[in-house]
Amino acid sequence: MAEIDETTVRHVAHLARLALTDDEVERLGGQLNDILAAVAKVSELELGDVEPTSHPLDLVNVWADDEPRPSLPLEDVFANAPAREGDFFLVLPA
């Protein structure tokens, strides 16, 4: 099993735009390696006869028919937007 090293933790943190302290990098690296070890244990099981499931219980979705209705007024849509340019949300760089 490959281990996640400090360089990988820092790279992923950079991609996620997270500023991590050295202590956080060490702690998160250990936690991520623990997760990989747990997944590796599951991978050792013989599961050829087990039917794949996404949930242990049957789920029932209640679907309603799509019914056209008026859209929200733009002033309501943009009421809590931090920035707007015309009829669009304006995304400002971080």
Protein topology:
Layout: H1 6-15, H2 22-43, H3 74-77, E1 84-85, E2 88-89
Antiparallel strand pairs: 1-2
What gyration radius follows from the Cα positions, in whole Å?
23 Å
Number of extended strands:
2
State the separation between the terminal residues, measured CA to CA.
37 Å
CATH architecture of the domain at 6-43: Orthogonal Bundle
Low-confidence stretches: none
| Count of helix runs | 3
Strand content: under 5%
Name the CATH class of the domain at 6-43.
Answer: Mainly Alpha
Q: Estimate the global geometry from the Cα principal axes.
A: flat
CATH topology of the domain at 6-43: Histone, subunit A
Please explain how this structure is put together.
This protein is mainly alpha-helical. A two-stranded antiparallel ribbon has the order 1-2. The chain is 38% helix and 4% strand. The chain has a domain at 6-43: Histone, subunit A. The longest helix is centred in the middle third of the chain and has 22 residues, at 22-43.
Provide a brief overview of the structure:
This protein is mainly alpha-helical and 94 residues long.
Structural key phrases:
Histone, subunit A; 38% helix; mainly alpha; 94 residues; 4% strand; 2 strands
